[in-house]
Amino acid sequence: MLNLVLFGPPGAGKGTQSAFLVDRYQLVHLSTGDLFRYNIKNETELGVLAKSYMDKGQLVPDSVTISMLEDAVNKNPEAQGFIFDGFPRTNPQAAALDAFLSSQSTSITSMVALEVPEAELRLRLAERAKTSGRPDDADPLVIQNRIDVYNNETAPVKAFYEAKGKYKGINGVGSIEEITERLVAIIDTL
Ligand code: AMP
Prior knowledge:
By secondary structure, the chain is an alpha/beta fold. It has a single domain, classed as P-loop containing nucleotide triphosphate hydrolases (Rossmann fold, 3-Layer(aba) Sandwich). Helix content is 58%, strand content 14%. The protein has ten helices and five strands; from the N terminus they run βαβαααβαβααααβα. Helix 1 packs across helix 10, helix 4 runs parallel beside helix 5 and helix 6 packs across helix 8. The protein binds adenosine monophosphate. The site of adenosine monophosphate has 17 residues, from helix 2 and helix 3. Adenosine monophosphate binds next to helix 2 and helix 3.
């Protein structure tokens, strides 16, 4: 199986690039942000809970997020591999993912990170807000909070995979096509 963690701060282009990678490598795309938004749209109990955190740019608690992700993996028994997008976002999530995949006799092949400077992220998120319909893109204070949460809680996940020799960073600034090419160049070596 090819199991990728597509990593990067909010606005790095994880969702955009996932769409290409899914096609090219025949993977199932699992975005925890998308799964939460689906639950919000359908007004489930999980959606109501998640919204209370997402609207402020905070992380949804680990226990809820981990079990939602495991359910989503279990719903795809035929998958040839997964792209995890927006997960893991904390070290406990990374440890839980490792344990879960190992119980399924598989593992993360690599974390591939889109590296984008903060000033560029702010510009991209402000631009995305015009069309995304996402309340968490529309408010500069919420955007700042998401970037702060990324720096404090999510960036340390890089070290988790680095310690296993599984971290690959690429320059996430450029055209969508250029960035896809950089990702493919790395993934083809895995
Ligand atoms: P995203 O679509 O990845 O930008 O995620 C949007 C929001 O969903 C985040 O700001 C968090 O509030 C929540 N979220 C998504 N993934 C996670 C995760 N792995 N852990 C905790 N919260 C998450």
